[in-house]
């Protein structure tokens, strides 16, 4: 099953780490640590192999992939020996990257994106293409009637800038018959008009916002408090990060979108919203090795007051990249099995999952295992 | 269903917090925060109500319950208003406490324990009695052939000190037709001879070692690393605590038993044993408000190295006491439904659960919910 | 030396903790823990004794002192037994508290404040009165020409609201011949016109912003990095607090004033400003037991990168209150020895000290000890 | 002033980091970050320049210096570019390293050490040689009468193994007219007989145990609590480290020596000993990037209970190496100015300083600055 992995934001840290890692793992230069589809309960003949993936993508930056990879070596994200070893193959991927061109209307811009996707699929005789959004977090867009209806949207695109870039990308992907994964908190495919389009086109989509650090911890700790009937009084979090992601999230609008995405797990898991805030601060020196600190105050039997703190020092790109590969493999398999529309079964991967799903990591894991296990039973 | 709750170690911090809490909750003076049998998925007509519990117990100390409760107020564990409000009822429990007498042989000591249990059951016309061990942690006993066989044990008790106190207690409980819960890491009922006795007597038992702090966190964090295919390189823990429990655990032998109990979850959940140690240090000033600090180093995609730390400031007695009440209710229900021998379904509550069970808290929770849910279906 | 301690904000947490503590210590009900003037190098016959202090003050609130003290018992700041023991004396202080009245002009308001201060001094035949500002943090005021010149100020007060409350208070104190201590980050006496007034009136003043937690730590840790020639790359801080102080600091303007006060120590001690921010978040549940978390990244020999974190769980009122008593004793002594204008020798107590002084706690301590020691030599 | 720096343990991590760093800084490849003698108050013409240092040493290992440096690159301690750049010079140092030979008696072993030192001095026409002990921590030796008296010692060395290696080294250094710095907690020169020898030989010595992490923090935090009259109730510390130092300190005897060295600062600074222990645990995965976690509980005004925690992630070799260079420069200067015996003025550098000195870092800094400043005045 030849599968295209098309990255929107292909020259960013997460994308390049994914590419280097995929090339390294399939050359047996590294173990697939961090790839969950390599764990026993998720191994399946229904998934394309890493070796079956063909890479392409868009980016507005023109920084070459090898240069970007070397900057990730300097930042301590990638090992020099791996980047050296896969350098030639990485350069070969350059030929598959495109600079998106901006048309006179959003319709025209979309048409160009679609052409790039179709051309990629045909050039490589791919069975399917998964588009993954790993661009920077956008501000929340203003509401617009065209977001609610595919007919209105099609019309509006001709004359108005009605979609934020992530959503225009989803529009193009679905129109081209590609599935779509949103790894960011941007709006992406989360508009009724786009859901209609995905269903009409018979393609599935997944999102939102890869769960890699503080929220991952929340998704196991909040259920722990709930299962033990302990009352969480406050949960406050501080995230310090540098890098391009940090610079972008220092913008108030992007910050608001991200913070909303991060808080949802508490409300959904506990059934109430504890006091406290989640902050994101840009500290360039910290680079990609993000530090999150959370303080949780809670009360137990007879009102006894207790607290816990944690500090998480995680390399965001290294945590995200293997999940991108997992999502491509899983979404491709879903697509090839005829699923279309939302994939709530992939909630395990996301801070702000689509659909009415459990926010407990363990529940999400079980759902995922059963879903993939079901494919094996029917092969 | 009138149920006796017989506490071995009835004047200790956990026991007295349980008693005060049970009296307060059934008088509607406090919410049952921390009691998991009050959560929707575990509510069941099969469980005795708190109001149906009758309290009794043994202790070698003679400190009166109200005095002990007042010392727990001073230590910040119990609120003064609650202790004042239940003082009279707490004093009434005094009448049901016994000082265990030591016979010429362990057989004779056991006979006296049995007599106390039977008398308690008959005096209060109880349907059943659950014996809960909340005494101090014992050293691991030396192996002895009589531990393997009930016949040999019965013989040996006449002439040798062959059982540590916690096991002699289990022997007495089973002989009296009572179920038994071991809330400590002591050997308790974990001897083949005692398992034979429980089965013969038709009584169930559960254990070992209530999971209230650091290990509770391990039971959600270790599965998180496993589910994400992240490699845990080291996991080091330090536990600082005062109080009687701290003083006892400062003894090397008790410390060893406890530490072994605390480490098992990592090996079982991760499938390998990371580097690092768990330490317990006695710091009297810290009292019952235990502090645990853990450092976890792990590696992800392409060898990236990351770490997390947590600090847990938890009041051990307040965390343990509601679980004692839960265990009594659940064990009583199991007994009344005819179950005997090990209750691996109660793994959720224990650091070192009996049987071949998952050590993931989420898995244990599901098992528990399905078990109790099954009773409701058949009522 | 009979000394008046007049509290602006007399019904707030810091003020009431100071009052309860002063009453308790002089009744030998508590040790003067936290009072630095009780340490050997600062003991001096030049200082008024606690027993010589007479208490009074202003507050816009009318909550009675005993009620406020009881709320501090509930919050875990004050012990019930102490509050009970000093209840009568605390009630007696009520008679010395006044509600400030607001005149038609700031001149008229000041006149009333002056009258209250003079009446207090005469009524109790005090040798001197120290006014301490422990009101809530104000926003930074807009600049005004009258701030620069006492003549202009005197004129402006007749017709304009030219001074923020803390500065009007300093104006009144100096006009009444009282010394003034600003324990908050508000502007207080920090205006050239007020400095002119203090010098003209022959009274000393001290400030700003009592150093009780995070900044106290910075004032020993930043010098440590400097003395070891380690390069601090970033210093990020998060402060979580509830209580009235937290609610006020959640206001953006007050927050800005506070944060500016907290950051100065780094720039002054290191000689450069590291990356990173200091945040203050309001979390009502945390109450007065503030939690601060700081992350410091630094580099050493040959560029090696290292980090440290600290968490501080400190009770702000309990940390501040003894320093208020110290400042009153020291300022009174300075006044009685004829000093007037700024007291940079008291930098030890403040986040944002007046004058060109060292921001290293150890240097500040030495300056303080030498200053007080000098008095002893000349007695 | 040509100065020899002779390293006992020349192939260990600290030694090799010192060598690489000295070579890099004098070639202007790196800034002297971490070298305190480069700070304004300690710059002095009395100190030998880094360019004047000549390197030699002993080690029982035969691992070549470049190999060791490369392993420190792999461990993240040294940057590859620096090690590459100084590789040739580092190889040149190889020629000055000797394997110590073990004689039939300690007297004979010492004679050989002396011959190596004298030969080094003469071969390079050095004005003086400073011997620095950076070998592994030894267990505390048993007491022996010969430790008390130089005459007895001289006699005993002929027939008994009366000195541990670090002390035999000090004996040889003094006998050869070299000064001696003990950077470890071993006994070193801390025996009356050796003090007599140093005075007789007219050479100075300094020690013990470089202060690089947890104890450095204690030496600023403990004075902070003392200056604020806050009562430290408990101070518990956990040190997790790998590397050769960690493996050695996991031995109970070495551990005991180290821990004793680490605790002294609290007793000396606070005037009493708080509860709590300092632990050292060997976690190979953590390598040279040591993690220390400390919990401090303290009480303030009216008994309010508070706590602070810190975590220190420091690279021990990188923190120690520049101090080794500082100590060599300062000890050489002291020697050349005619000082002999103990150098308590160097307490700033040590966990367990020689002599009756302050354990506050700020006090130690002032003493050091005044000492070096005094040399400048008299030049």
TrEMBL record, chains A, B, C, D:
GO biological process, one term: phospholipid biosynthetic process
UniProt domain Myo-inositol-1-phosphate synthase GAPDH-like: residue ranges: 213-317
Molecular function GO terms recorded: inositol-3-phosphate synthase activity
Gene3D superfamilies, alphabetized: Dihydrodipicolinate Reductase, domain 2 (3.30.360.10), NAD(P)-binding Rossmann-like Domain (3.40.50.720)
InterPro entries with a match to the protein in the record: Myo-inos-1-P_Synthase (IPR002587), Myo-inos-1-P_Synthase_GAPDH (IPR013021), NAD(P)-bd_dom_sf (IPR036291)
Pfam families in alphabetical order: Inos-1-P_synth, NAD_binding_5
Domain of life, source organism: Bacteria
Family as reported in the entry's similarity comment: Belongs to the myo-inositol 1-phosphate synthase family.
Name of the protein in question: Myo-inositol-1-phosphate synthase
């Amino acid at each position: 099953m030849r599968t295209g992995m098309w990255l929107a934001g292909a020259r960013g840290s997460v994308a390049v780490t994914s590419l280097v890692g995929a090339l390294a793992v399939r050359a047996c230069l590294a173990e697939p640590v961090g790839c969950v589809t390599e764990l026993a309960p998720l191994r399946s003949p229904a998934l394309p192999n890493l070796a079956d993936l063909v890479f392409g993508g868009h980016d507005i930056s023109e920084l070459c992939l090898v240069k970007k990879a070397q900057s990730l070596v300097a930042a301590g994200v990638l090992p020099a020996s791996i980047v050296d070893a896969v350098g030639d193959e990485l350069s070969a991927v350059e030929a598959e990257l495109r600079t998106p061109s901006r048309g006179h209307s959003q319709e025209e811009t979309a048409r160009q994106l679609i052409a790039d996707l179709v051309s990629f699929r045909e050039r490589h005789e791919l069975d399917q293409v998964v588009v993954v959004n790993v661009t920077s977090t956008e501000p929340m867009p203003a509401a617009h009637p065209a977001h609610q209806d595919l007919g209105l949207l099609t019309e509006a695109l001709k004359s108005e800038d009605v979609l934020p870039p992530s959503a225009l990308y989803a529009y193009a992907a679905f129109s081209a018959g590609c599935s779509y994964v949103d790894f960011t908190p941007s709006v992406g495919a989360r508009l009724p008009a786009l859901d209609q389009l995905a269903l009409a086109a018979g393609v599935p989509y997944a999102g939102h916002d890869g769960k890699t650090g503080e929220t991952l911890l929340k998704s196991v700790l909040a259920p722990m408090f709930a299962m033990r009937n302990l009352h969480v009084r406050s949960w406050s979090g501080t995230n310090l990060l540098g890098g391009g992601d940090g610079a972008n999230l220092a913008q108030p609008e992007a910050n608001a979108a991200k913070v909303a995405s991060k808080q949802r797990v508490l409300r959904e898991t506990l059934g109430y919203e504890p006091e406290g805030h989640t902050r994101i601060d840009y500290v360039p020196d910290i680079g990609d090795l993000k530090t999150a600190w959370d303080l949780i105050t809670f009360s137990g039997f007879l009102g006894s007051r207790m607290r816990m703190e944690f500090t998480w020092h995680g390399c965001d790109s290294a945590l995200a990249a293997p999940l991108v590969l997992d999502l491509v493999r899983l979404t491709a398999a879903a697509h090839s099995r005829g699923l279309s529309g939302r994939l709530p079964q992939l909630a395990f991967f996301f801070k702000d999952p689509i659909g009415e799903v459990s926010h407990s990591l363990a529940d999400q894991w079980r759902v995922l295992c059963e879903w993939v296990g079901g494919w094996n039973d029917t092969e």
